[in-house]
Amino acid sequence: MNSPPSKEHWLGTDDQGQDVYSRLLIGTRLSLFYGASAACVALITGGLAALIAMALGPVTETVVFAVVDLIRALPGILFALAFVVAFEPSETSVVLALGISFAPNFALIARATYLQQMARPYTDAAKVLGAGRLRIALVHVLPNIGGALITQFAIILPRCIVSESVLSFLGLGVSPETPTWGRMIASAASFTEDAPHAVIAPILALSIVTFSLALIGDALRRRFDPARRRIAQ
Question: Any stretches that span the bilayer, and where are they (predicted)?
């Protein structure tokens, strides 16, 4: 237990004698999966719901964005903590909690880009041809705002991964035997002096992956930002 890195165990072992490198590989897959799942939930519940609400009219828009403002009033991690505690810690509750907490980011992007696209001539042409507001939103507008939503997805994904790690570190995420990065950090934190490698490895993995994803998100934001493209030209 808590043995240092060696030929048999490249990153050493933890307090239970488990290979840190093997658990780190599994934890990478799980953390990315939970983070991506939460970001997908946020995209669907935020972006798509906001787009449909805008198309259905001012009453639906008012109701949906009142809920959005209510969620935004709380810090994301605090909302996720309350949600997980209310519905018992599990993989599903963590994904839903993070997805709902980040949904307002997509909702605001969807509303802004929807209003922008509805002022374009192609939407007027669709109206003349008899298309309803919902059909215009889903068939014509949605493909044209996909770039903005994908950019936001890339920005939200690393935040979801970090938030999942925080919940797991606090013991409110996935089950204790599941080797996500947060669980690995929480388990090894008590043995930092005896086995610093066991806590440094998941911290470095979390930092490198989230930083890399943040750079990708920033690059996509610059790529799809019309204002920046005009300045570059």
Answer: 32-56, 63-87, 93-115, 136-157, 199-220
DSSP 190-210: GGTTT-HHHHHHHHHHHHHHH
Strand (E) or helix (H) holding 142: helix 142-144
In sequence order, what are the beta bridge partners of 13? Answer: 19
Name the nearest CA neighbour of 155 among 111, 210, 110: 210
- Residue 10 is assigned to a structural domain of this protein: no
CATH number where 50 lies: 1.10.3720.10
Q: If DSSP codes are grouped into helix, strand and coil, which group holds residue 13?
A: strand
Q: What phi, psi does 119 have (nearest 5°)?
A: -90, 0
How far is 100 from 96, CA to CA, in rounded Å?
Answer: 6
Length of the chain: 233
Do the beta carbons of residue 6 and residue 183 sit within 8 Å? no
Q: Which residues span the domain enclosing 49?
A: 20-232
Cα–Cα distance list, 69 to 8, 91, 103, 145 (Å):
53, 26, 11, 22
**4 lies in a domain?**
no
Tokens (6 digits) for 161: 């991964």
Please give the structure tokens belonging to residue 88: 């018992």
Does the reported pTM lie above 0.85?
no
Give pLDDT tens digits for 178-190: 788 888 888 788 7
For the chain, the 3-state helix, strand and coil shares in percent, each to the nearest 5, are 80, 0, 20
Which residues share a beta bridge with 19?
13
Whole-number Å distance between alpha carbons of 34 and 158:
11
pLDDT in tens, 203-223: 898 888 888 888 887 787 777
